[in-house]
Amino acid sequence: MxxxxxxxxxxxxxxxxxxxxxxxxxDLQEINSSRSxxxxxxxxxxxxxxxxxxxxxNELGIIPTWNPKTKVKAELSYNTIPIMRGFAQVxxxxxxxxxxxxxxxxxxxxxxxxxxxxxDGMLADLDYDLDHSLTDTNIINxxxxxxxxxxxxxxxxxxxxxxxxxTTFVNPQMLRSDVTPFxxxxxxxxxxxxxxxxxxxxxxxxxxxxxxxxxxxYLLGNPGGQTTRVNEFSENQLFHVGLAPSLVIxxxxxxxxxxxxxxxxxxxxxxxxxxxxxxxFDGLFRFQAQMSLTAATSGHTLHLAYFVNGVQTQTIIxxxxxxxxxxxxxxxxxxxxxxxxxxxxxxxxxxxxxESATLSGGGLLTLPTCSFELxxxxxxxGEVLAQQNMPDxxxxxxxxxxxxxxxxxxxxxxxxxxxxYIEPLGHYLTSGTKKDWTNKIDLSKDIQVExxxxxxxxxxxxxxxxxxDLVNQLVQKNAGRTYGRYxxxxxxxxxxxxxxxxxxxxxxxxxxxxxxxxxxxxxxLLDTENEEKTILDPRPRIAFWNGLVDxxxxxxxxxxxxxxxxxxxxxxxxxxALVVDDESLLYGTERPFHHITGTPLNTxxxxxxxxxxxxxxxxxxxxxxxxxRLTASEMATFEFSDKIFIKDTxxxxxxxxxxxxxxxxxxxxxxxxxxxxxxxCTFLPHAFLKDGQVQFTNTSGTVVTQVSRQCxxxxxYAYDNSTTFCWTxxxx
Length: 732
Fold this sequence. Notes:
- This protein is elongated.
- The chain has 11 helices and 47 strands.
- By secondary structure, it is mostly beta strands.
- Strand 44 (694-697) and strand 45 form a beta hairpin.
């Protein structure tokens, strides 16, 4: 007996009214869609019992109690076997002979609608419980994985500092504000789903066998700006004040130079009054003074110095004016730890009251104009707030980005649509049960066998979004594509003309060297010749934590000399330790902008997308449409991951149509032939030799060194005609 309950109330049904159900596999990957398994419309009589629930929907002048805009929990069952849980919608009311009425319903299978439940929320809207103080100890602990259980790690990203081994990085020194927080992807994902009211099971996100690297996958923090964002500090705290016009100075006692904000000068937080800076919080402050003279009385001595709380702390210049020429300039930097309300200023005096000079003005930010600048702050007690350091991205776009990265499917639990099973498609399809439907086929009806030709595109692209950073821009300009793109082309299909693209909302995390050094970092610099290099609105990026890599010495904060460097790259291991079985966050293989020991085989395409594409594009691929007799219990327990055996071949279910649970009905089933593991060529990459040569294994597992050009290049490696060997794509 078929039963329908709406919001827990049983609805009376026509005895012979058919209820046909349809199931569709592709919806499992459409996280932004509310489509689901659904029933065809059917009618229920407006009996007294049903009218108690629906209200007087047959009375034209009466507003019914049923709200057509509201989803109502629905459950269809047959002989106590639940066959569909979801929600119902009233489509129509039919009035017959002015007396009898029917209510037309459609029941949708309840499925996850992340787009609806997450809404337009941004990553910055969530509470991640990952706030912490920006201290040397916390940063060093993050490298060891002991800060907040490893959910936050600090890396080095050039966000406008424009480091170079011949200038700014000659004596390597990193400030606390120079390092950048990265947030574990699984933690961000957990927080989004928890806030939306979801739970989930996932071998992928739990780091089960084959997915161990997920724990090392991180989201680049800091949405723009050179310094890490803390709650006590913003870029508005920085200032650059100066003289405009020039100033004649004299006197033999120290006097404050009255630097001010005007013209090109700036002091957005008004922390400088009459040339005196007042610290708004505790921290290490770094100042720069630029001083230039246009005229001076020769033969006497000028003293310029920094003062803290009225006490001289560091000399800028202490020299005879006879050594100065008109236009003489000097630049002096000064770093000092200050507590809140401490003051800093620049003062002058001469040996005698009769001496004088003119300090250059004019309003320029550079010499010869005299100026006083705060250009960097290291915070003593500043709190790094995860919300402030999240990239400018919607939560649903973050989830969609992960789906397009790892080919994820989202399967709602049959009994609870708020509980999901989330896995890469290939992994999900291996979890099903083998079932023999050979004897269930209705041989009296046609069995349709069709190639997958109509499902194929002539060109299929997997690509990240374009990045604004200079390295990504270089690739985009010179190669006409985004770094890490993979393309499948099928020139043999004369009937395929269209192109399809999987567009990832993340930008590629491309690494290069700090110029004239051996440090591998991501350089998020604008591709511009202008002085300003900072990207204020960068696209979000994900990267692998490679750990601490042995390096030349460098100094960090107050912690002193370091001999290991925190490293993030698009590879699952550091560039000097890569082997063929490692992973890459690029869709296809690429020539990196630094040395690597070998190019990993497991690109995103190869590991997560290739098996599905091969089954679709193989000349042996087939879609079979047949009519099958299935019972209510079989329908209640089937999964799209099941492997269906028919005669001598296994298939996957694509769709089931027109299932009527009230009868031992024949249903239409579309199935895709399972082809198994299709090799891209006879040989598989095995290992990298020290010189970059790629070794392969044949089908029997024997190591071979020579393969065809087609096979070598199929895996993204470089074929050498002179040696007939296959090589990694590392730079020579």
